[in-house]
Fold these 4 entries.
Entry 1:
Amino acid sequence: MLMSQKRIKVLIAKLGLDGHDRGAKVVARALKDAGMEVVYTGLRQTPEQIVKAAIQEDVDVIGVSILSGAHLELIPLLIKEIKEKGLNDVVVVVGGVIPPQDITRLKEMGVDEVFLPGSSLKEISEKIVKAVETKRGIKIAS
Amino acid sequence: MLLEKALSGDELAISKLLTKIEYFTQEGLESLQELIKRSGKAHVIGITGLPGGGKSTLISGLISEYAKRGHKVGVVLIDPSSPFSMGSFMGNRIRMVGKDLQKNVFIRSIASRGNLGGISAEALMLIEALDGLGFDKIIIETVGAGQTDTDIVSAVHTVGVVSVPGTGDEIQALKAGIMEIGDIYIINKADNPEAEMLYETIKFALDSAEINFRDGWTPRIVKTIAIKDVGIKELANVFEEHLNYIKSHGLFDKRIKDRRVKMVELLLRKRVEDIISKVVKESSNYISKEINEKHNLLNLINEIYNNIKLSL
């Protein structure tokens, strides 16, 4: 019968009020080149909008870019919305200008990976694959 | 189980079910078979046209218009898969941000995954499923289509072809292919000064056509400025006119039957193409040697064709 190899589906969005999306676009392109299917919804998204799109697209990963410094305020709202809507096995990754001392706090909130400036695109896609395999219990062929 | 939850309107269940269908899982296909028994009620609209013409922005406007009119709106957006990595960068949904927060709106992006022709077997399966789940206006956006990407015509009730000013002269409008398939031709970005020229060009192409238009409907031309929500209401009204026309001519059900035949055809093609790709890949060294060194074409084609037949 017909078979189609599972591809990782990722939502990339900018959370909150900051107008800089170059990084998010570069990462989205890199994930495409790593064989993932990326839905890009761009700038100035609310947690509600991001989670709604994640539900309807049935993504494996929500990737959020934040350069505004508001991550400790906005990420908890996003995580709360994710939990309330029952997205139990979605991987959450955050990228952007995040002070290293905040990484632990973000991970305690439920973020799976945090990518700081200087992260290589290879590292980002590899860590995403690994996180999806662990959290969703599927094997992604490379 | 998942199907029952989806039928009760649980959005997460609908979404998970669509994934199972698009990946051809056993549960997905069995559910789809059930849903086909319930489908056949929705008005399915296809929006096609070149990349950057404003298809997504137009659809965004239509979503609001239909939601306002009390419809349950399902949207399927196709964007291309990379021929190299098989990954995809899908950017259609960005034009519709927030529209999904309206009640009864479900938007799904899907990568083309090697399907050509502007639509895919997977996309048609999603349409069928959304129809069976009770969505009564279903909009499908093709990949930014080229001149010959005309499969959409046998998959939907109403075809909207989007053109924008400044993309070619009269010669382009007279060519075969995409300029023959529209039920409605949409001139988007109509605030561009060249829009009037495009209107005259398309009008001339339609007026001078000797072919019988599809099922006797005379194609209409509608001007829009999607980004400013201009002309969207009028466009929705023309779509309704077309719907009434096909209903009054007994064509509504015929199109659904044609769509399902197309779905089966595309599924079969996919299955056969998978085998062709596999056989060619396995014998690529041999094929290369035969054609490049021995310049053997005729026997080679027959030989590989027989190998493919054996693999079927």
Note: Chain A touches chain B at residues 1-4, 6-7, 28-29, 31-42, 45, 48-49, 52-53, 55-58, 85-87 (CB under 8 Å).
Entry 2:
Amino acid sequence: MSELNRVIHEPARLTILALLSSVKEADFLYLLRETGLTKGNLSTHLMRLEEAGYVEIEKTFRGKIPLTLVRLSSEGRAAFQVYRKSMKDILTPTKGRRVPVQLPT
Amino acid sequence: MESRVDVDEVSLRAAKYWMEDGLVELMFGLMMMLASGIPLAARALPKGSLETFMSPFGNQAISVASIYATTWGLKKLKERITYPRCGYVAFPQPTRKRRTVVMGFALLIVVAMALATLLLADYRGLLSRLFVPAAAATFAACFLAGGLQYKQPTMLWEAFLTLLFATILGLFTNLRGGQGFEALTTMVGVSMAIIGAFRLRRFLKTNPRPRETQA
């Protein structure tokens, strides 16, 4: 577990990154709906991801309505792929590798 | 939020969300109806002012115009209906390599069909009869693959309906070859538009337009 990226490993942030991984960009409202987080929680997690350099946040307007666009940075995409690979390696048993089990005496 | 995250499922949500409002099916259905229905209807009319539609150039112009009009319409409707209610999502543009592969594959199919028509000229009647079932099988396979990949039950229904329409055309009409294909595409288009309209109605019911759309 020590190899896992702790910023990404948190479920809410992992969900945000997984959502952003398949799109070019998404707005705050979409992420709010899909993650089921509160506005405050989502903002906090997005700030944490932005600090880590994993997402880019752009505040703009659509007409007169404020629009917060979020997209995965190239660094974030790479980190997410590394995280997924690490998780797969941990969860997929390697052929021939046996997990030692200690039976009670 | 659950502590365990199914990353594969979450990654598919954007594609599901894109289909959820039914607008894609509605506009794609309209496109098929326009591109095939107009030439089919024009052909059924007596020769006259609509004769131009029957020419290959007229058909191509209608197809291209339908594609552009429905793509533009889809974009505008998404902006007006979906994004204010449930949020905006943009998908990455296909890379040049991917576009080249798709175009190459499409070209290959066209060349193969042209060659088959030339080489098998003696079997033109048979080819004409096989054209609609082959097209229906291709459409159904595409719907089936999309439905299973993105977990869209309506696409499975569309696959079934496509095969049903092809069977009806084969058993109860004399439409073969190009005309049969146009009739099939029109019927599939109508069914897609109806399914899309029902999905849109459900989407609008479950997602009323909020007063405040942003944080």
Note: The helical segments of chain A are 6-9, 11-21, 28-35, 39-51, 74-91.
Entry 3:
Amino acid sequence: MLAYLIRRIGQSALVLLIVGLVAFAMFRFVGDPIDNMLGQERTQEDIDRLRGQLGLDQPFAVQYFRFLENAAQGNFGVSYRQGRPVSDILLERAPATLELAAVSGFLAIAMGIALGVFTAIRRNGFTANFIMSASLIGVSLPTFLIGILLIYIFSVELGWLPSFGRGETVRIGNWTTGFLTETGLKALVLPSITLGLYQMTLIMRLVRSEMLEVLRQDYIRFARARGLRDRVVNFRHALKNTMMPVITVIGLQLGSIIAFAIITETVFQWPGVGLLFINAIQFVDIPVMAAYLMLISVMFVGINLIVDILYFLIDPRLRADRAGAH
Amino acid sequence: MTEPVLSIRDLSVEIPTRKGIVCPVDSVSYDIAPGEILGVVGESGAGKSMAGNAVIGLLNPPARIAKGEIWLNGTRIDQLSGDAMRRLRGKEIGMVFQDPLTSLNPLLQIGDQLTETMLTHLDISRSEAEKRAIAALQEVGIPGAADRLNSYPHEFSGGMRQRVVIALALCAEPSLIIADEPTTALDVSVQAQIVALLKKLCRERGTAIMLITHDMGVIAEAADRVAVMYAGRLAELGPVREILTSPSHPYTDGLMASTPLASRGKSRLHQIPGSMPRLNAIPDGCAFNPRCPYAADKCRHDPGPQGVEGRAACWFPIVRERTA
């Protein structure tokens, strides 16, 4: 277990180093930030001074090493546009995105698994077929369109839910939460459905097809031949075996929920890191872009690591250290 | 004669297909007495497994019982509701499948699989179930049974897994075991052990066993009586010695002649010409008539008598001089 864990962590670190190189390379290839920062009225002296200040006169390797050193300490430099440390800006914005992603992730996983199991067990029922057909909408409609449709129906026509923003938030330490106020919760509904719908239908369809496959296996037939109750056969015997491949995909999907948040946050003007990133692109605010890139990759790598560990816990065949004698 | 554990009367199974209804089991009748092993032989597709699935109520839709009756210990079971049938499975009828590598849930410890089966059917406590699980594993010959409860299926070899499967089929003490090709996926040396184990359990507990196989060696080794099936019909039914040494249905005769025996030396094996008809193309009259060396006109029009105990399903059964 330990050796496996160390190996996986080592691989994760390598991935992050490479992403770091890409993020760092942006500084060198996307124009000269000095031009942007100093504007028209500038002297050569100003340019040299700022260049020295930002360390841009150092050799490439030294700059990369310093970038990594700072990044590891959570220091991504100063935003060109806002003139404040990037880490402060990200910390300020992160709660909005994380809360949105958590709610939509939870929705997608809970509803996706429940509906997937339902449609697999009642595979010829009317309701199951209806859900399957309806799920095609979730798979095929683009996120921004779903968001706009929801805004049209629930904000414009019915006026039940707000169309943009986070509502009122409560500050707890460094974290601002929308969970504690009524407007905050209301504001979460539409964006989290928009963000989670695609993932939900994807998980549902995956769970269904995996479960149908598992239900065909001999050990399910044998479980039935032993007279076990349907509930036990479906949930204890079949669902557990279904979850193996599903967990991998769920892990990847959670990562892309955070990545897809860019679109949803733009549609709903949600003050999270995705919206921050879009604005940063418009202003070529490279430190923010680089930090965002690193943040997303840390999340992806971290989620994948957790998935690998979950695999290990679910499937006894991977636990080499407790193999019995034959 | 004691009352049979299982009694099948005129059982037919049908499957509706686009090209009409096919009949994988056609008017089959046989009994199994307590402590008896009935071998059911036939080629692939002869309907032997389908009959077993019908008995345990696990026919895959759209296959269904078209007519006939199934009696278990004096109770008719072919018309029971889904849940009543489920209660019977495992408790009254155990089943052993062909491939022990895929019959066990890979993610559950075998102790859990044993106790869940017992707790479903028997009114006992968890600790009692665990005690019985150890006893069941001991009975099927798994060494160090108490330590193996927490093992997962992949930690056992193929033969050991089939022993676990048998323990699972037996743990609620059913009166009938349906063993569907229980040795086919195993090594020859392990096959003999599993057959011996089934025989031992049958003798010691008085369990009736329906042993479905296409292996004549297994039949000769284990069965008390044999039912020979061909194209969904019962060709012949009788005591194993009679069937093996003096078969009266031409199909059984051909089957015996094509079984390799050490005593027969290196001479070429007999071969029945042609192959078994597909279910949607069973010929008129006797299903075996196109391949039968003795077929007459009558055989091509009239299916002939139904096969029952001591009488082959044939117009012209082979009669031999008994050399008793």
Note: The CA atoms of residues 98 and 182 of chain B lie 5 Å apart.
Entry 4:
Amino acid sequence: MPKILVVTSGKGGVGKTTSTAALGAALAQANQKVAVVDFDVGLRNLDLVMGAERRVVYDLINVAQGDAKLHQALIRDKRLDNLYLLPASQTRDKDALTEEGVRRVIDEMRERFDWIVCDSPAGIERGATLAMRFADVAVVVANPEVSSVRDSDRIIGLLDAKTEVAEKGGRMEKHLLLTRYDAGRAARGEMLNVDDVLEILSIPLLGIIPESEDVLRASNVGSPVTLHSGTSAPSRAYADAARRLLGAEVPMDIPSDKKGLLVRLFGRRAA
Amino acid sequence: MTQPSTHIRFRGRSFPVLALEPDAPIAGWIERLDACLEHSPAFFSRKAIVIDVSKLGLERDSVAELVEQLSGRGVRIMGLTGVDPSWACDDLPPILTNGRSIASSETLGEGGEQVATLTPNERSAFEEIAQTLGGGAQGSQEQIADAEPERSVAPLVVESAVRSGQSIFHPDGDVIVIGSVSSGADVIAGGSVHVYGTVRGRIMAGAYGESRARIFCRRLEAELLAVGGFYMTADEIRDDVRGRAVHARLEDETIKITKLD
């Protein structure tokens, strides 16, 4: 049963595209057949982070409007042959996407992939609502700061109201991915800590990605961080998160100032 | 009087409406209204409004002019109160006394003329209407009470968190939230509001002016609390009640917050 996963946040710049690429690659490394889809029409970035920007011919809009076939638009990753990218159009705007068009593309992709990872644009407008529309799993990306957490809260409300799963009376599976977490700053009270964020959002925690230069370095060379530096802290955190998405029980490490103190948090559900 | 052969159904019901009370001088009041409308142009859209002119002592023509001015500003007037019921006519909205409508002669047909000449006393008017509608029985206080029994309104129970951007609106009664109310969310109730979680958003109890409404919550981190139209922002909430289980009520037109434990 293929899974449609939306990576979303409300706020921009929190790491949706980075997380889409990293989770997509990590799922592919776990032998899943994966497609990552860029829904940020007009401001496409996922092709850059995936290192596929020089091979884009057709895009999501072309396929949604029937101007190109799905297989013509999909770009196979050079490093992993079970990882594909469906890029967004840079020259169109989000109004070019229609619900019917997106539904057709997603339905066609269901036949070919185990995971379809949709990279949502920031905001709560058309692009973002269409990216989540047909999803059955959501990864809500948040930074440990108040504006990001409030926007994520808004997005969780929309996931429970505006998606097809929710409208049919079903339950959207939601996970929190806390990115750019700096243990030192959280300890000094300059950032929200993990408990604060979980208390406010009250959805299960999928992973905590520590703030790291490795993430930026990987983006700049056009590689998902999980493929670029497999042993770095963020890379391991993404790989663990991907394993949790696949149903494995992996203990959760909260990045901490104090060396050796690993707090086991897996399975916790904030009230 | 003969009983009509086809039956239509009448029921006495009460609805919450907003009553606008213009004050003198009218020109100045209209100016202030315009200033308000500039801030929130949609305030009156889709709301049923009653105009209460009891404080003005206006002539019929001036009232008609006021109604025209308000209609021109998108205020949807469902009734007039505080005027002489004998004015009832098509160019004015239905006239209400103490919340009940005095029918105009048009709607009542032949018998209606009697009504128009009645004293403004609401009860005798009601008796006459009851007779005209074919009841035949002499109206009494008991019958009036029968016509409009006290309604008990079911509370609205929200069995999840109220997320940022969501708005819960229950004009008729209490709202009970089993979960938290997030920052950027609103809960608006005609009655009291109970939140069995943390309040980080805005809570408005007694939204139609019910000053006995209260707000209860397990943990107070609210952006705004309002009771009966009086409000308090986060800045005004004292530190010693912040983060605590509290209840809030209106006392001498200020919101008073008390710890529950």
Note: The interface with chain B takes residues 124, 146, 150-151, 153-154, 156-158, 160-161, 199-200, 202 of chain A (CB under 8 Å).
